[in-house]
Design goal:
Layout: E1 11-15, H1 20-35, E2 39-45, H2 46-56, E3 67-72, H3 88-96, H4 101-111, E4 123-127, H5 131-139, E5 143-146, H6 151-165
Family: Belongs to the UDP-glycosyltransferase family.
GO molecular function: quercetin 3-O-glucosyltransferase activity; quercetin 7-O-glucosyltransferase activity
Length: about 170
């Protein structure tokens, strides 16, 4: 797994929750880690990967040799339209049903293969995607779960059950 005699860099695989409010902050974190000397593999689901390519152009993901982008299947049917946000309900069901797990695990195995031209994965940074824990535990890779979206969205998510109990949501008469 050597890279032409180069000193091996730590290799972080960053996997955000597949929604824009999570992707952008995870990309910012990945850039900071890259600046600190990490090799980065930034992983999106295929839908968001295609949206990124469409908005930025086909060469936007070429990047630096030690900052790569990868896409994994999310178990949802392909779509021709990348102009809108992916069907949130279907995406939540896909995540709940762990449809990202097998493609993510396969990607980690590919990155750690002897013939891979990248350093071995030294850690995974994922954004509230606990499915990554199964893959990293089985492969012996450290995993950090973060909430990269705004603090306001975290508080909303944490208090959602209480808001439902008190009848504040779902909103009425709107």
């Amino acid at each position: 797994m050597g890279i032409n005699g180069e000193t091996k860099k730590p290799h972080a695989v960053c996997l955000p929750y597949p929604a824009q409010g999570h992707i952008t902050p995870m990309l910012q974190l990945a850039k900071l880690l890259h600046y600190k000397g990490f090799h980065i593999t930034f992983v999106n689901n295929e839908y968001n990967h295609m949206r990124f390519l469409k908005s930025r152009g086909p060469h936007s993901l070429d990047g630096l040799p030690d900052f790569r982008f990868a896409a994994i299947a999310d178990g949802l049917p392909p779509t021709d339209t990348c102009d809108a946000t992916q069907d949130a309900k279907a995406l939540c069901h896909s995540i709940r049903d762990r449809l990202l797990l097998a493609p993510f695990k396969k990607l980690l195995q590919k990155l750690n293969a002897e013939d891979s031209n990248v350093p071995p994965v030294t850690c995974v940074v994922s954004d509230i995607l606990s499915i990554t824990l199964s893959a990293t535990e089985e492969l012996g890779i450290p995993n950090v779960l973060l909430w990269t979206a705004s603090a306001c969205s975290l508080m909303g998510s944490l208090h959602y059950p209480q808001l439902m109990e008190r009848g504040y949501i779902p909103l009425k008469d709107i």
